[in-house]
Write a structure and sequence with these properties.
Layout (H helix, E strand, L loop, with lengths): L11 H9 L9 E6 L5 E6 L1 H14 L8 H41 L5 H12 L5 E2 L5 H16 L2 H9 L2 H15 L6 H20 L13 H10 L2 H19 L10 H16 L12 H6 L1 H27 L6 H17 L5 H22 L13 H18 L14 H18 L6 H13 L4 E5 H13 L1 H4 L6 H10 L12 E6 L11 H4 L4 H19 L13 H9 L4 H19 L10 H65 L3 E2 L5 E2 L4 E7 H6 L3 E4 L9 E9 L2 E8 L7 E6 H9 L4 E3 L3 E4 H12 L7
Helix pairs in contact: 2-18, 2-23, 3-7, 3-26, 4-26, 5-21, 6-8, 7-9, 7-19, 8-14, 8-18, 10-13, 10-15, 10-26, 11-13, 13-16, 13-17, 14-15, 15-16, 16-17, 23-25, 23-26, 24-25
Protein name: Rho GTPase activation protein
GO biological process, one term: negative regulation of Ras protein signal transduction
InterPro entries: RasGAP_C (IPR000593), RasGAP_CS (IPR023152), RasGAP_dom (IPR001936), Rho_GTPase_activation_prot (IPR008936)
Length: 795
């Protein structure tokens, strides 16, 4: 255990978070009065915080009494929901990795710069099943060896921290998948989250140590910066973005025609375009091509930009106010990382001014967390569709303003942004206070040390992990072992890697299996005597157990039970439990009575005052539990929304992948077809024409309802008579025709190539103009994929 653990105070905020799922919340440290044998009073320092984990571990180890009150049901729902969010987050991360890979390659396909053999390899990468089945390791010896390894990696985060510093950008994604979503994948469980943050501290510390220039700290795109960004994309971060940003962004994008462009060159282009449309020619004093300086000096351009600047600063102010007002919504882990950035900066650069330190904190909080969501809200599922051109540009400008506010502003690349400097000047003090307030959270080392002791006393620690994650992590450890095994305290890691031998190769995706890997320490056995391990007295252990037993009994009694009446009578509660037919209640009642006797014999409590100290603490626990039900219900509502968002994002990513897969099939079939002509040959030598699919008929109302029609110029009273036919004469080619009921010929016809649609989507051109209507490109792609995918052949 870390030696710093005993030096640092625990976080009250985190103690509540880590214990809430079990139903017990610690109260603040306090002095309570206990009775001695001679009846006098003495002050007993209550170690309520320190004992919380022990209290929970005892009830966990003796969980033969199932509590079914409203709080227990709410907490079970909450636990299930958190587990679902963690599992879905991992699936989304894997899908996003696939989509990123496709994005990096799709341009080559669109431009026909990829050889046929490369296409086959590319396509085969996604032909295999992505749904991982359950499985096991081939033998128990391997299971035990990897169980030792992953327990060591999880409980001693310094090894993963060292590995993160060694890997390349090409390796970081697969490592982050295992670290963020598997080894520390339970995003709402205190121990795993705290271990993960400890790993972050180690990585950040090394980053500060090895970065010579203050100005380049945390700026470059490195494995460390990718780690920090990935951390913010987990469930708690997604919940924050939804609560804080979604409403502001949705309000803004409703104003589709609000143009707030302030780049003088673009405004100038708009002016001359409108002048040409109005007069048919350019004004004599407005040449088509001008420099940025000339455009900025144009009186008409200045007149257009001036009110836009005021409006932009007003919008940015509303975003900033919302962010500052929701300080308490910020996930603890993100605030703790901000705190480490401040602490490390102060230690390494003692002369650094406060405002310079704030720029580093802002660089993480805004650059890595908030601004990506503001610029691309659809990717974060904060809105339902990609915003139109003008709101999209406004969001980009708002993000730039917030970034300039949080960082030291630089207008070298975009001088026109300097016109917005009053926003920075007026809010600099305000933002620096907010960034410092972000860092004001407690540490968790003491509670983590306690949690680790408790973990060692459990026998059911498991890790749900895939075979490829196991082999991939092993391979990275082996590859970088020379660097990893140089430092102190790496002997155990070295022994395990030597015994495991060479890392096995990755299995094909369709053979990958998910397994429950039992975790246990090779060098530390189960702790039977926690009181000795944690340097607490036997009377404290008995007191906490007694409190746990009586709280469980009271929660299990019917609300109308005489035993539950106030003031509490502990003997009556124990007797009532022992008189019940339920064997678990009988055992708990017997144990409660034994504990009262033991505690009275030790002089901790006395029957003379009705065991007042124990009664008061039981009452306090019950009061905390009473308030926890409402908190649990409120949290369920929030997390339900997060889970829905993550599921929607999953559906969006799956749709993206299906579109890409079909495109790959199409490219391949066209490439092969070009070798033998447009018309292929069957095995008999006869010509075999491409199969024509369609036409499929869609009403205007149907396409509008599905979001395929983004805008319509068709009068309302005529829309019922409008329909569309879509045909695919050959793979990758589509014909959309617009028809009016009663007329034989279509009003218009549009030929589409799949390549063109994908390229439009890649370039964020989401509107396809069909004269009478504008189609939404992603929705069109989804519709074509659904109706025209040829089995085994693409589109």
């Amino acid at each position: 255990m870390s030696s710093t653990a005993t030096m640092l105070a625990p976080s009250t905020r985190n103690s509540a978070a880590s214990s809430s799922s079990s139903g017990f919340v610690p109260v603040s440290r306090q002095n309570t009065i206990s009775s001695t044998h001679d009846g006098t009073r003495s002050i007993r320092a209550s170690k309520r915080y320190s004992h919380t984990a022990l209290y929970l571990s005892m009830s966990a180890q003796d969980r033969d009494l199932e509590i079914e009150d409203e709080l227990a049901r709410a907490q079970k729902t909450l636990r299930d929901l958190k587990n679902k969010i963690s599992a879905q987050s991992k699936k989304n991360f894997v899908l996003e990795k696939d989509v990123r890979y496709l994005d990096s390659r799709i341009a080559l396909l669109i431009q026909n710069r990829m050889a046929l053999e490369e296409q086959k390899d590319f396509e085969s990468h996604f032909e295999e099943s992505t749904e991982v089945q359950e499985g096991t390791f081939p033998n128990d010896q391997k299971t035990q060896a990897y169980g030792n390894l992953f327990y060591l990696l999880q409980s001693e985060p310094r090894h993963i921290a060292s590995l993160c510093r060694c890997v390349s950008m090409a390796e970081i994604d697969s490592l982050l998948q295992t670290v963020m979503f598997t080894i520390y994948g339970n995003q709402y469980e205190g121990r795993e989250e705290h271990l993960l943050l400890t790993m972050f501290q180690s990585v950040l510390s090394a980053q500060f140590e090895h970065t010579p220039e203050y100005s380049s700290l945390l700026r470059a795109n490195t494995p460390v910066s990718r780690m920090m960004t990935t951390y913010t994309r987990r469930g708690p971060g997604q919940s924050y973005l939804k609560v804080v940003l979604a409403k502001q962004i949705n309000n803004l994008i409703e104003h589709k025609d609000l143009n707030l462009e302030i780049n003088p060159l673009k405004v100038y282009e708009q002016v001359i375009r409108e002048a040409e449309e109005k007069h048919g020619e350019l004004p004599a004093d407005m040449p088509r091509s001008v420099s940025a300086e000339e455009a900025a000096a144009n009186p008409e351009v200045q007149q257009i930009i001036e009110p836009r600047l005021t409006y932009l600063m007003k919008i940015a102010d509303t975003f900033l106010a919302t962010i500052i007002d929701n300080l308490d919504e910020t996930p603890y882990g993100i605030r703790w990382i901000c705190k480490q950035i401040r602490s490390l900066t102060r230690r390494k650069y003692p002369d650094a001014k406060d405002h310079l330190i704030c720029t580093l904190i802002g660089g993480f909080f805004f650059l890595r967390f908030l601004n990506p969501a503001i610029v691309t809200p659809r990717s974060y599922m904060l809105i339902d569709s990609v915003p139109s051109e003008h709101p999209r540009r406004t969001l980009t400008l708002v993000a730039k303003m917030l970034q300039n506010l949080a960082n030291k502003p630089s207008y070298a690349k975009e001088p026109y942004m300097a016109r917005l400097s009053p926003f920075v000047t007026n809010n600099k003090t305000r933002i620096n206070k907010f960034l410092n307030d972000l860092c004001e959270v407690g540490d968790f080392y003491e509670s983590l040390e306690m949690d680790n002791y408790v973990a060692l006393s459990k026998k059911d620690l498991e890790l749900n992990i895939t075979i490829n994650e196991v082999y991939g992590t092993h391979a990275l450890l082996e590859k970088h072992s020379a660097e990893l095994l140089q430092g102190r305290d790496t002997e155990h890691l070295g022994i395990l890697l030597e015994e495991l031998g060479p890392a096995p190769s990755q299995v094909p995706r369709k053979e990958n299996r998910s397994l429950d890997l039992p975790l246990f320490s090779r060098w530390e056995g189960n702790i039977d005597d926690l009181s000795a391990a944690l340097d607490i007295t036997q009377e404290d252990v008995l007191f906490m157990e007694a409190k746990s037993v009586f709280v469980q009994l009271l929660r299990s009694f019917p609300a109308t039970s005489i035993a539950a009446r106030r003031p509490l009578n502990l003997r009556r509660i124990g007797e009532a439990a022992t008189s019940m037919k339920d064997i678990q209640m009988f055992r708990k009642g017997m144990r409660g009575q034994e504990l009262i006797k033991d505690l009275e014999a030790l002089g901790v409590i006395t029957s003379e005052d009705g065991f007042q100290i124990l009664r008061e603490e039981i009452e306090q626990e019950l009061q905390h539990l009473g308030g926890m039900k409402e908190k649990a219900v409120e949290e369920i509502k929030k997390l339900d929304e997060v889970y829905k968002t993550i599921r929607d994002h999953n559906a969006y990513l799956v749709s993206q992948l299906e579109t890409y897969k079909s495109y790959l099939h199409n490219v391949r079939s066209q490439s092969e077809g070009s070798k033998r002509g447009v018309i292929g040959q069957g095995s008999s030598g006869k010509e075999k024409k491409n199969q024509v699919l369609g036409p499929y008929k869609f009403t205007h109302q149907q396409l509008e309802k599905e979001g395929v029609i983004a805008k319509s110029n068709v009068p309302d009273n005529r829309r019922a008579n409008i329909y569309f036919n879509i045909t695919s004469p050959m793979p990758g080619t589509f014909v959309i025709s617009l028809h009016y009921k009663g007329r034989n010929r279509g009003l218009l016809e549009l030929d589409l190539k799949l390549d063109d649609l994908l390229e439009m989507q890649q370039n964020n051109h989401d509107e396809l103009d069909l004269e009478y209507v504008q189609f939404n490109v992603p929705k069109v792609l989804a519709l074509l994929n659904k109706r025209f995918a040829r089995k085994g052949k693409g589109w």
